[in-house]
Fold each of these.
Amino acid sequence: MKTKIVAFFALFIITISANAQIDRSQPPVAGPEPEISIDKPKEFELKNGLKVLVVENHKLPKVTYSLRIDNKPIATGNKAGVESLLGSMLGNGTTSISKDKFNEEVDFLGANLNFGFSGGFASSLTKYSERILELLSDAAINPLLTEEEFNKEKDKLLEGLKADEKSSDAIASRVGSALSYGTKHPYGEYITEETINNVSFGDAVAFYETYFNPNNAYLVIIGDVEYKDVKKQVKKYFNDWTKSVDVNSAVPQPNPNVQYTQINFIDVPDATQSNLSITNNVKFKMNDEDYHAALITNNILGGGGEGYLFKNLREDKGYTYGAYSSLGNDRYGASRFNATAKVRNEVTDSAVVEALKEIKRIRTEPVDAQLLEDAKQKYIGNFVMALERPQTIANYALNIKLNDLPEDFYTTYLQKIKDVTVEDITRVANKYFKADNLRIIVVGNGAEVLENLEKTEIPIKYFDKYANPSQKPKFEVKLPEGVNVSSVLNKYFDAIGGKDKIEALNSILLKYEASIQGSAVISEEKRMSGKLAQTLYMNGNPMMAILATQETATINKNPLPPGMANDMKQLGGLVTELNLLNSETAKITGIEKIEGKEAYKVQFPGEVVSLTFFYDVESGLKVKEIQTTSMQGQTQSQETFLKDYKEYDGIKFPGTREGSQMGQLVVFKLLEAKLNEGITDADFN
């Protein structure tokens, strides 16, 4: 403590001394205007069409290689996903080096090397750079494409699709692109289980042979190299890459914008928050005259924490964790303006209204001059800082070539940003933000949000999770006579052993075990009347401890915020349902199929933590749990499936608890269940 006090006073004295030397009545003198001087990369081209850009930078003994196959956007139709399958196979060995030896050598050299269907990237220390370039070229020209590897990658892709089936983010992305561009457009088509199963190994090989060639390829080399030396190396390793026949497929036009502003609603019954996307198509290219003004306009609307959308929906209303906008550019004339946010179900309609208000505001009200100046300075600062990175120089040179930009595009960049006026902002906003032709895509829980969305009087059209037109979902819950929350919970008590028998217990101890990325994880639950202590161990070490009693709720001994603490207290007790039995807010919101069997969906709202439990209609057993936490505009949900109930002294407990953690399936198996032993009151201190 004494040391901290001394340090505080030392800092205080230094601050006073510094302030004494500054005349606060005068603003600081601005520094000199940054001068933009961009060195052009050295270039050459091989006979097969490969174009090479070299940026020498000798500050660090490191070299990076970026290979870009610059094909036009490709639609693969009923075989959508073939490009992803090919990309996942590339970079894993060559016809002369096995997959294991290839990857082992890259690791041994401390290098990075990876591929996708549109190119590859590699980096290494200078002393290994020629070998990495050789491996990059060998993997590009002579890839090891085997049917065995193809089938493995196909299975992985199919598993990924299953994991995304109920993901609101995945649904919003897929439907947003499909509705905006059309499912036959390269930017609008999507991968399904059906299209993946249509792809054969031969299709993947044919795709490589057709599209992965040097005709339209660029190799960007940055780092500690000598131009003459690296030119010889590139010729040595890439000269044998055979030029193919050019594929001159036309890029189709995207869907036209909607004729009138409308809500396109996609019902996801389990969604705990709504995914909003307010969008319209634009034809916006980097070589447009108003490119720089458009950048600043989008920044003011939703480019970050200073934007209209963020300040309204996050800072003022607290509807969301963040609200942003983007204005894409595309040299083929297919891009979008998009304003996005994830909001709580109960404020979905309000968030839509407020976002539309901010879009109208930037179109109709002159932007504040200081706000405009701040936006400019932000862009200028980012631009100048980016020039410190050698990659920037190469990217700028490539942009000039690919986007038909004037040679002085970047040397005049800052001046064009500075020249943007208040009038430019209004003009550009009206050009690209189509107030009367906005598609408002809402992916959410219709039972909870549609009634209020209808009150906005914005026309609503309905679509399924694959952008197909559909009918308005029906939310009437028709329950058998006599079925209510109380009857469902009492049937659950009977199914696991009986309410009287549970209440007669003194304590319950449960231990579950799972393996996560090779680590042994133990979940230990200790329960007594009105109390819960849950500890998570990884490889024997305690990682997280949750305590919930009638008096307190903590995580790792730190008190939880009051609202969350009150909600967490209901999780305590011998069985959570004993606390929920007399809940005045609980309700049955539907009957849903869980792994093929019907289950009652019972919701228990909370201020911060809400619970949704699913009970098998036939057996009464709880088969699924969803715990949803909503704080500071952000919502997170955790789903757990309960299976294989096992009986211990007449009481049943789930033998398996399955859930997803960061996209990975985690399965907890019941190790032991102890009744009336192994727990004392001291465990809840």
Amino acid sequence: MIEGYMRVAAATPEIKVADTEYNASAVINDIRKAAERQAALIVFPELVLTAYTAADLFHQMALIRSTHAALDRVMEETRELPIVSVVGMPFFNEGKLYNVAAVLKGGRLLALIPKRHLPNYSEFYERRWFTPGSPRVRDILYEDTRTRESYEVPFGMNILITASDVPEFRLACELCEDVWVPCPPSTQHALAGATIIANCSASDETVGKDSYRRELIASTSARLAAVYVYANAGEGESSQDLVFGGQDLICENGTVVTESQRFRTGLYFGDVDLEKISQERARLTTYPAVEETEECEGYRCICIRIKEIAGKTAEAEGSLGRLQQEAGTLERFLDPHPFVPGNAEERARRCDEIFMIQAMGLKKRLQHIGTSYAVIGISGGLDSTLALLVTARAFDMLGIPRDHIISVTMPAFGTTDRTYHNAVTLTERLHATLREINIKAAVMQHFHDIGHDPEDHSVTYENSQARERTQILMDVANQLNGIVVGTGDLSELALGWATYNGDHMSMYAVNAGVPKTLVRHLVKYSADTAEDAELAACLYDVLDTPVSPELLPPTAGGTISQKTEDLVGPYELHDFFLYQILRFGFRPLKVYEMALHAFSDANAAVANDRAALSEGDQKDASLHYNIYDSETILKWLKKFYWRFFSQQFKRSCLPDGPKVGSVAVSPRGDLRMPSDAVVNCWIRELETIKA
């Protein structure tokens, strides 16, 4: 089970103009299919029961009465289905005709929400037929044409459908043009508490309009921190002057979760995270509380139970609001590498942008100090390679010769020929100045001074080397009136995988905001774009080298014996945990469940099904990630929490460094956390899991 997720649907059925019985059958069919797929909400296009293009036929009372009867039929035949349906239709009331979204559930009409902004320009003539809706909500008497039962129904724009059994579900509606205006009704709806906006739309196709439509809906969901379900008219509408191509969209806080192919009818699903929406609004302190906004005044809340139908508990209880974590149940791609863009072109653009952020940060620091020298401990590993590349770019921007970059290699007990030669080659190809300072003798003297047996390869053996290296870098920087550029990355800081006052310390930490999975792609980007073939070959070899601090002696064959991921766990798992925990504050159980899906065969299958993914979710074929079982995920998640809490004291005194993405651990910026906070309540929740 994954908490907070709910399946929603957008439908574009094939309809016939003015054939309300045919159209009602199409709507009923899609509602049934959506309910079978455990969707809690389905949204249909604008005026779907008549067709948007009925034109002056809207003035024919025969069509209006037939539409009323068609709606009653839809309610009757979906009475036993645990799903909220939003259906577009014309509605006649008190001598005026309105373009409305009818909200249905359990055989009852919950609300009628009229369209406010009626376009009357270019190809649109809605004011010829319809009256604009009002935000004011009033009760009108509605009579079911089948049962002759009459009951009051709220009529007006400012209506929220809420669920007592799924508190994050708060639905509001707007229609087509409403979202295209400068101040859409959805803005007020969101400020009044709506987490889901449904839009019944009939937006015709013109050249390039699809891109604008996609950007509009995605950006609206981001601006409102909401889920936006957009159902657009398609085939079956009159083509007398216009063509309607569908393009249904399900967006979540700026992410396109699902997008239909244009010029096709169909039913499209998206599994959206309503808990994420609530968490995001809580995090954004500029997002006003409902009671602080004047816009919420005058709203009518209609409370339902998602998991009930006609007063009975639905058979699907437990699957709505909490989707089962069985193979194929969660039909959404969860990115195993949330820090790494999936699209190759976007990834390249992002890598260049990150390089610029890092280099600009270092450039400013060098200018402020008034120095033209930087000192870097170069190991031949990923992090120091990235730091050297960033420093070279900063020096180029300042017009300082690269030979003022002092690249210091410090061989010790664990240094291998491979990493040593890569360190030397990188320095030479980037035209920095290489200094080799072997620290073995100094560390042995230190062991003698403190009475440590060199055969004891404990933490003292390792940290003595790390601190000796840092001391050398600091003193070399003092000699040159320069600064030490730090190499540690965001993932290492989150795990506390750094020697306190060793590699933990520097004068400016350029990698502090870059997680390990992204470090790898930044180095690969440099290799892919390098004009120097020898430099590119060296960078590719660095990428192929196991991540290691090289503080323990190598194997008999001279290869690295100390592999970081064998000790702390796979960085791709830890980066996934880090993103979900710090970016959204998700509880341990949810992070575990999400990781199960993200690193599963089922998620890999979704990733390979290009048609099932939106552009933003499609992962480049070159992006490989591993599959992990439940025991492995649980083991390293416990390790992550333990290390994250126990190592906060290292993050409390970090050197300055640039923030790169939405997740950072600077004690001066993003992470204000006590160093003595206790991890017990997080671990207790994980102890309840049986992997």
Amino acid sequence: MKPCRHAFILFIAVLLAIPAFAGNRNPETPVPPKREFRGVWVATVANIDWPSKPGLPVAKQKQEIIDLLNMNKRNGMNAVIVQIRPSADAFYPSELEPWSKYLEGKQGVAPKPFYDPLAFFIKEAHKRGMEFHAWLNPYRVKNDTLDTLAASNIVNQHPDWAWNYGKKMYFDPGNPHVRDFVTAVVRDIVKRYDVDAIHFDDYFYPYRVANQEFPDSTTFKKYPRGFAPDKIDDWRRDNVDLIIQQLSKAIKEVKPWVKFGISPFGVWRNKKDDPDGSNTKAGTTNYDGLYADIIKWQREGWIDYTLPQLYWRIGHPLVDFDELAHWWARHTYGRSMYIGQAVYRLDKHSKIPDWRTPAELTNQIKMIRSIPGLEGSAWFSSKHFARHLEGFQKELRDDYYRTPAIVPAMPWIDDKAPDAPSNLQVEKVKHGREITWKAPQTDDEMNKARFFAVYRCGKNDSIDVSNPEYLIDVTGEDGYFVKRRFLHIFRKKYYYKVTTLDRLNNESVPSERMMFKQ
């Protein structure tokens, strides 16, 4: 036998021994859940994640969005949480607030040639089957008191609405005009843009600056709302309660399907301060330090999900990830609970050994999945997935996120399943096949198709859409490309089915099946 022919036959034998679609997964890793929130934060303040710097050409701004979404989709994410209003400004055209300085380098300057970054971001995220959560900071006006505000900034018209604290400027939470203004901003976003959620992080009242009191005594005297002089802390909490309640009502009035989520600091209260608190020793807490009674908002149904930032390691002596994950899971009150994870801490040079390898983060994923009441996590922040993470991205793709996931539904908003897609067809295209379908048509906005789930199995199997192993993609488009194998002898017959996912991720029954070789 000639050497080249022998080598070819050996090559063929090796390929035949490889199961179709087998990855490099660890066989000990269970199949990921079919329903799981897998979000990633995209911070624009100080150009943390996007754009990489102010003043980029528009084409470069758009390309960075596309590259960012492609990277996160490849890593298994199904939602982006994008900061569209970092400091009383906007990453979209607004009659209420000026353009953000982090876009073009100066507040109030629009991109040139003009485009709408928010609309572009939403369109590209949805195309990839990813939810878009619009992240806003309710109170921050200046990230640095030396920043220059555009002439159109509302604070120039109403300087009494804001005060300086530390090295930043904030809206005064006790001023009712501030609550109305922030609500108007959110209402405008929800009305004009196809966002899936409005998202706030942990910045309510500012984190304390040593030996500096909040300059809100005058506001307290002007708008006491019946609170006694020695109850200013309760008054501050009530200020934040009022804006959350007001925003919740406004969002649902405009579009009932738009979710409202909060990502608070990781500790509500320490047990030493409240019997219902966590067994932690945090120096700051939501309730006592930031005046954010997040548990009340969850319990009252003012918000749809909570995403506490548990940026600590398992076994931390003061704020143990394990303790806090279980504590938050006990306080869902029938709403969604996700966990914020700190991919930014992963560094082989970290002073803390636990953060030098991906094991800390993968152990956290396993822990989250093992705790009833927790439905996924989000990562801070996107840019860190573009750096060397000691193989963490590969572990996500090959093991922990190796199958796509559908964002958990929210039945308290809507639990009606949409109709299935119809008219599945397949067409030969360059390098493969294109499956297409027709989205179901309805006048019910709540149940309009948002995404489609694509399932596949071998010709001798039966597609069970409850089995996450058969789910191969979630897409916002009405078609799916299947790459053709390069040698005909390796092509096999596979069945495909498609389901509709509505705005709240309720899933239809599957379409008729389709079979072809690939």
Amino acid sequence: MSDLAGQVRVSRASRVLLAMASVAVAFAAADTYVVVLALPDMMTGVGVPIDQLQRAAPIVSGFLLGYVAMLPLIGRIADLRGRVPVLVMALVLFALGSLITTLAYDMPSIVAGRFLQGVGGGGLVPATLALVADLYPVQRRGIPLGVVSAVQEIGSVLGPLFGAAVLAVSDWRAIFAINLAVGLVLAAAIRALAGSTSVVEDARPRLPDLVGTLLLLATLAAGAVVFLRPSGLMRDLTWGRLFIPFAGDGRWLTPIGAITVAALSLLLAWCWFAPRPLLDLRGWVRVLVDADLVGALLLALALGGVILAFATADPKVEVFSPRGRWYLLGAVVAGAAFTWHVRRAANPLVPRGALRRTPAWGALLVSFFVGAALIAALIDIPLFARTTVYPDDQLPAALVLVRFLVALPVGAVAGGYLIRFLSPGVVTAIGMLMAATGFVLMTRWGLTTLEEPVANVALVVGGLGFGLALAPVNAALLAFTDDDVHGVATAFVVVSRMVGMLIGISALTTIGLRRYYAEQQAVPPVQEVCDGKSRCTEFSDLLRVAGIAQEHAVFWGAAGCAVVAALLALVLFREVRPTRLATRDLFAGNG
């Protein structure tokens, strides 16, 4: 019987569909850090002075908030509505957020655009992971899960490189214009492929909604005029009246702003009452209620408080910002309210017993520590390169990480293959111990180590280790949760890893900077040392040594997180058997 199960074939259209969804996940993940190089230009473009960098924090934290806080709700919707509809809707939201960001003219508009990008981009992840479980039998999920997990992590680091490539030939708005085009193309491709797969509940052909289409076009056209404010129209004696505010100086308190709002209201009303509208608004609202919107909002408040507490901190002096204490207090209150709500709701966001089995909730805990260790590699390896061999050039420093990234997808595919023969707990532990070994080797790096071939050993070992751990964690979760909760369960795994990254980078950076300040105290004042060119060079080297000590402390902390993840995986995944053996047990009636 196990041989029969192993012969289950996945159609070519389903494989292409999963490939498209994986590309979407990678592209959305890249958008998390695509603003790294473009941030100064984006600030100038929306009227924020370049010397007020702290005011630009919402551009980054807004995306993270949308990406993480709404993930559980979207994962639950994917369980109720289906994977492909959620993938398409997530891409449409991502494209809409990209459009708003492209046309943004002030901080509220650009933060709103980034938030919508985050909601859409985050929603792709649980829907894609659950799609793997829908398309592949248990014994064949490992490699596809590894591929999806790997492209998500790679995308996060390729974001700055993508941004740099676009900025070399255009301005920052072109980055999000490309996002808009890619999001719409992928949404159309996934929707077109959906009809030939078995994962779409209703693939019947539909007549085009001409009225809804015209209202949508009118809304977009009027909205574009509000955002762009073409100078030719504004100077015209007749058309210029459209831009005169009724009160104050807001763009929306104008005739053209009122026209846009009216067109949007008509579009929403049509989508609510029409028999077969362009957007089934009534159906989506019904799904939101069924998915427990109240619980999702309470959980979003809790997650948002955690994100803002750490994302707004200055790690040079604190783990979280002074306001972060209030954010955390709000998160605790919202978390308590969410727990109370889940116990009382008839159909809670997290169905009762969904994560009751040890490997299921254990996957969340392991994922947290994997994220805390992984962020140290993604952030501090390039920082180490900037501190030592590339102090004046950011691009070569970022490219050092490519050696790590090349190994990561190889490890992910290998990890997905190995769980057919070894327990996911063993594979995860091996991977995280390899990652810890890589970090320990990095603690031996000196001023010139990155120029030597020996540096590649730590990078390759670490990348392979993290790759090995990605698929087994998701496989353990999917194996010990029911099919109808795969979306929300995988969403919580992603949330755990992202929260681990946020808390990990704040805590590890704070530890590292304390080591830096301790080392810096041993450096004589500049006036006592820098009395000649050679002595100034010596002083600079002393500061670089202090910077190396800082990064070594971070690497030691990351190694500790990796070891904790390995031990937790061995203990919490001990019930999870290799997928080949688990499939035999299932067909034997022991599953």
